[in-house]
Amino acid sequence: MKVSFQRLIVILFCICCKTGNAQNISINNSAMPPDGSAILDVSSSSKGLLIPRLNTAAINTINNPAKGLLVYDSSKNQLMVNMGTALAPNWQTIVFTVLCFSQLWNVIAIRSETRSLFKIGILSNTFMVIAISVTVLLQLAVIYLPVLNKFFHTQPLTLAEMLIATGISSIVFIIVELEKKVKRILKQNNRKESPRTAAQN
């Protein structure tokens, strides 16, 4: 079977184009090319993306799950992301810790609507200090005690991961303190303007 030179060029061109486009894949019904930043670009106006669905026991048996691996936990009815490593998988324990610590930071910050916690005193409310300390200890127990790991489906966090979770959650405290600072400044400005207004009248 003879193949003309022109036909051979066309075949080679098609192969090259197919190889180049394989770097980015687009799945849609509009013939739109894939986004350059995505290896896989899926779009639809009437359908969704169905990812693997596993129960909790099956997820825990995944061999060396990659960091960022996404699955759907059918036992918990929620998406699970491995935020740890292949050797030490951590399914959303960091997110769980951030949510818990965020609430604690919020409780600490909202003791007063305008006064700073540093003016009130961190240890001025003994009962609150005890309650927060107990909550932190319980959270640490859920993270680091093997018995509770199995019950709550958590994984021990490294020191770096715990510091990250604490740092992210403290943003709540910072925002509330900044809000109180703005309130104090506005209140002081209103006090300064009041005598001037009275004198002009």
SSE inventory with pairings:
Blueprint: H1 5-21, E1 25-27, E2 40-42, E3 53-54, H2 56-60, E4 70-73, E5 78-81, H3 93-109, H4 117-120, H5 126-144, H6 146-152, H7 159-169, H8 171-200
Parallel strand pairs: 1-2, 3-4
Antiparallel strand pairs: 4-5
Helix pairs in contact: 3-5, 3-7, 3-8, 5-6
Key phrases:
single chain, 201 residues, mainly alpha, 3 domains, three-stranded mixed β-sheet, two-stranded parallel ribbon, 8 helices, 5 strands, 55% helix, 8% strand, flat
Q: Cα-atom Rg, whole angstroms?
A: 28 Å
| Fraction in helix | 40-55%
Q: Which outline best applies? A: flat
**How many DSSP helices?**
8
Structural class: mainly alpha
| Overall domain count | 3
Task: Please state how the strands of the largest beta sheet are arranged side by side.
Answer: 3-4-5
Regions with pLDDT < 50 over 5+ consecutive residues? Answer: 15-21
Biggest pleated-sheet summary: 3 strands, mixed
Order of helices and strands: HEEEHEEHHHHHH
The pLDDT mean sits at 80
**How many individual β-strands?**
5
* Strand residues, percent: 5-15%
Span from first to last CA? Answer: 106 Å
